[in-house]
Amino acid sequence: MENERSRSSSGGPMGMINDFFRQPPKGSLLSQLDNYFMQSTPMRGFPVDKSETDRYFIVSAMLPGVNKEKIDIKVIGDDLVINVKETKTEGTQKLPSGKRTVYLPTHVAKKNMKATYKDGILKIKFPKKSGMEIKIDEAE
C-alpha cells in the first residue's frame, strides 16, 4: 500500500490518473473529470469566445486595461493568432498578456475581416463565405 501511495504522489500523468480514480465520484464521471482538470490546470493567457451570426464568424477576446498598441492580430494559414505583448501591472491588478490561437473554420473568408477594440473587448469579425446556388433541372 505504501509503495502504491508513493507512486501516485510522485506526480506525472500516471500519478494524476491514480489519484483521480482513488477518490469516489461526486456526480457524473464527466463532471468529475471537468472539475479535476479545472482545479489542476491554471488558466493561461486571456479568455477568448467564438460566436456566429448568419453573416459573420466572430472572435472576442477579453483584454481589460490593455492598451490597443500592445495587441497584435494575424491570420496564419487557418489560424487567427492574437498576441498581447507583456504589460505592466496596474496597482494590484495584473493585466492580461500572452498568445491565443483560434482555428478558423473553412466556411470563413480570410479577407475583409474587421477588428474593433472597445471597453476592454477585442472583436474580430470574419465574413462567412457565400455558397453557390445550384439550379435543379427537370429530369428528362
Automatic annotation (TrEMBL):
Matching Gene3D superfamilies: 2.60.40.790
Matches recorded under Pfam families: ArsA_HSP20 (PF17886)
CDD domains, sorted: ACD_sHsps-like
InterPro entries, A to Z: A-crystallin/Hsp20_dom (IPR002068), ArsA_HSP20-like (IPR040612), HSP20-like_chaperone (IPR008978)
SHSP domain residues: 39-140
Family membership noted in the UniProt record: Belongs to the small heat shock protein (HSP20) family.
Protein name stated in the entry: Hsp20/alpha crystallin family protein
